[in-house]
Write a structure and sequence with these properties.
Structural class: alpha/beta
Shape: globular
Distance between the termini: 117 Å
Radius of gyration: 30 Å
Strand order of the largest sheet: 1-7-6-5-2-4-3
Order of helices and strands: HHEHEHEEHEHEHEHHHEEEEEEEEEEEEE
Oligomer: single chain
Largest sheet: 7 strands, parallel
Length: 479
């Protein structure tokens, strides 16, 4: 071996050793996210029951999973106990955009997101907590296949996040790679996700399909590989492409452009505007026309459907057990009010056969026309929580010997005559949720008769010519 070849061999050997060292060390150097996020690094809620349920079949999230009205409030609250790790490129951010807008429209879908290059947890409690990134360092949250599953370095980054022990789930989103991937690459992806699940048995790793691209055969083949694998191996699949392919009424399949921009949304929204309210201000890769932003809304809805399923909800399971809380009630005092008045709501929760260890969850969102009085939420026992006001929460135990009374106050802001209906939701494990309503009659404020009716005004003299001076006198008299 001549000197030049020897030097080249030494150079390659040194570089290889450095790469191996970097890949091995990255987990140690990035696993302690001091100062990033204020979330407590506690062990997250166990999901053993959900993982064991996988034996009963896969969880497939597709276009049939976007009707939020079907999700019981109880399972939404259960989903908020989870911590979620999400890594993505630009198309995957559509889910983030959608769930942020949904939270803005309805605080019931409470979520807090930490998007950062270093792993951490948001500090907000009582909501679903999401880490958006993959421990890349700095502020980067743009995660390609090479930075999550496709290379030893990417795998080590993902491991450094999951090694914290903070997360229940991890999901990574494709960009346009599925339109050109070979079958071998798709299989590599599937194998690595399974390897992650084997390494972290207390977590579930969620498969995804790639976004629509105008109808290429390669994309369809690759996405079908993922779908079949999820079905055969009882995995969780978020079918990104399927959600883009059918409208909320189930019509389709539609073909979108190569960027994955919705090509059917404008026509659908024109004919069914009720599905297209509260769209986000933007939706990357599906932003124009404005109706195309429906994609972000639908993906957010499907995401929450998935979280409810992961929490244990079975949409087609047996009907709910008759609730033990039927004797509960809700009232408002006074029942007749005007703008500016303060009213007090009282909820009485009464149970009969609930075990003392059963946790009951109560959710009440104030309707428009009422403003919550800060600090007024109280309960005779349990844990009241008004951090998400106007959505008010309570959790605790209810029994025949321990009924619970919850009260809170609100200020009336409407000045018109209208009936306000306020509905509260209450649920306990293995019992169907119940609702209780209270109606408040609002009356418009009618000004009282004036007290100045005896006031007068006159002019002197009453007959004048050009150049004359006249004097007006006004006398105000009140009683």
């Amino acid at each position: 071996m001549n000197v030049q070849k020897l030097l080249r061999f030494i150079f390659v050997l040194v570089v290889g050793l450095l790469l191996i060292t970097l890949s091995a060390d990255v987990r140690e150097t990035r696993s302690a996210p001091a100062g990033v996020g204020d979330g407590e690094p506690t062990v997250p809620r166990a999901i053993a029951a959900v993982r064991s349920a996988a034996a009963d079949g896969p969880i497939i999230i597709d276009h049939t999973c976007t009707d939020l009205s079907q999700i019981p409030a109880y399972w939404l609250e259960e989903a908020k106990e989870f911590n979620f790790h999400y890594a993505h490129t630009s198309h995957g951010s559509q889910i983030i955009t959608g769930i942020r807008k949904l939270k803005e429209v309805d605080p019931t879908y409470g979520v807090s997101i930490l998007a950062h290059g270093t792993v951490g947890l948001p500090s907000t409690s009582g909501v679903l907590r999401i880490y958006d990134g993959n421990n890349l360092g700095g502020s980067s949250t743009y995660v390609t296949p090479e930075l999550y599953w496709a290379t030893p370095y990417g795998i080590s980054l993902t491991q450094s996040v999951e090694d914290t022990g903070w997360f229940n789930f991890s999901m990574w989103a494709w960009c346009g790679q599925q339109s050109t991937n070979s079958a071998a690459t798709v299989q590599q992806y599937l194998d690595q996700i399974v390897a992650f699940e084997a390494q972290y048995p207390d977590m579930r790793f969620i498969l995804m399909t790639g976004h629509t691209d105008g109808g290429s055969a390669t994309l369809e083949f690759n996405n079908n590989m993922v779908r079949q694998y999820a079905t055969d191996h009882n995995m969780v699949l978020y079918d990104f492409a399927d959600i883009e392919t059918y409208d909320p009424l189930g019509n389709g399949p539609y073909v979108n452009d190569e960027e994955g921009t919705c090509m059917w949304c404008a026509s659908f929204c024109e004919n069914h505007p009720e599905y297209c309210t509260d769209l986000p201000d933007s939706c990357i890769h599906s932003d124009s026309p404005a109706e195309a932003r429906l994609f972000c809304k639908l993906k957010a809805n499907a995401f929450w459907w998935m979280m409810a399923r992961l929490a244990g909800w079975e949409p087609e399971g047996p009907g709910p057990t008759p609730t033990d809380l039927e004797d509960s009630s809700k009232s408002v005092s006074p029942g007749l009010a005007q703008a500016g008045d303060r009213v007090t709501y009282t909820v009485n929760l009464r149970g009969h056969t609930l075990p003392p260890t059963s946790t009951v969850r109560f959710t009440d969102t104030l309707p428009g026309g009422l403003v919550y009085v800060p600090g007024s939420l109280s309960a005779t026992s349990g844990i009241p929580d008004d951090t998400l006001a106007p959505t008010l929460l309570w959790s605790g135990s209810v029994s025949p010997t321990l009924p619970v009374t919850i009260t809170y106050a609100a200020t009336v802001t409407f000045s018109s005559t209208v009936m306000l209906t306020n509905t509260a939701y209450t649920a306990a494990p293995d019992y169907g949720p119940i609702t209780r309503t209270a109606q408040l009659q609002l009356e418009s404020v009618v000004p009282p008769p004036t007290d100045l009716e005896d006031s007068s005004k006159f002019v002197s003299p009453g007959l004048a010519q050009a150049g004359d001076r006249v004097t007006y006198t006004v006398s105000l008299r009140g009683h």
